[in-house]
């Protein structure tokens, strides 16, 4: 295949493979809506690499998600920058690791999102089950047969949104790391005592399976799990839990995501590579100072 054929459709994969940080803002969450004005503003923002779309704490409305995705498709951006210049969207789905994610995963991926964020992942089995739900079945002789894919095949809509024919979409929508062409990005939220206790085993299991992904240190629910005040006050157990997620990421070479980060430079040095911002004020402001941008190579 030519270099052009290998060019990434999902720009987040290129950034993460180059060990660069990626920055996101939430949509459909905490005062940021999902209407046309919001989509146009977020697509035009130079400050963020991708958008997180919440379906966990908001109604499970795939019609609204589909409209939001298509509202991002700015004709001028497509002409000057191509399909890859449209900001990727990763959806946080309602079921967590404790639940079956198969049918929700299939429906959300069929909208055309670039990846999924999965809440409350607590064991390697849960993480690998989510991987299986997100990938199509592989050829029986494929080296990457396992985790064996469970996603039903209906590629017309997501292939069109990705700007690919169905065959190419099938190849490129495999999980990052499992296949050389795979570009589907999964984010596993570690946000409970049990998840922290098992985070090293989760990272090891994913790595042994060949999966590349983001581990997100979810400090909010984690603090409640430890009986500490969320987002304020003394949080020694939560801080230790976040460090355990970062440590697992460093050990197994997996990027770690952070929310409510205090210092991009310090968190970057600890292994964080994905940074999440929320609130209406984030749309028009940069998460990075010029000094921080230079420090993290962006």
TrEMBL record:
Keywords of the record: Lyase, Metal-binding
HpcH/HpaI aldolase/citrate lyase domain: residues covered: 46-254
Family as reported in the entry's similarity comment: Belongs to the HpcH/HpaI aldolase family.
Alphabetical list of PANTHER family matching this protein: 2-KETO-3-DEOXY-L-RHAMNONATE ALDOLASE, PHOSPHOENOLPYRUVATE CARBOXYLASE FAMILY PROTEIN
Stated name of the protein: HpcH/HpaI aldolase/citrate lyase domain-containing protein
Species whose genome carries this gene: Pseudonocardia ailaonensis
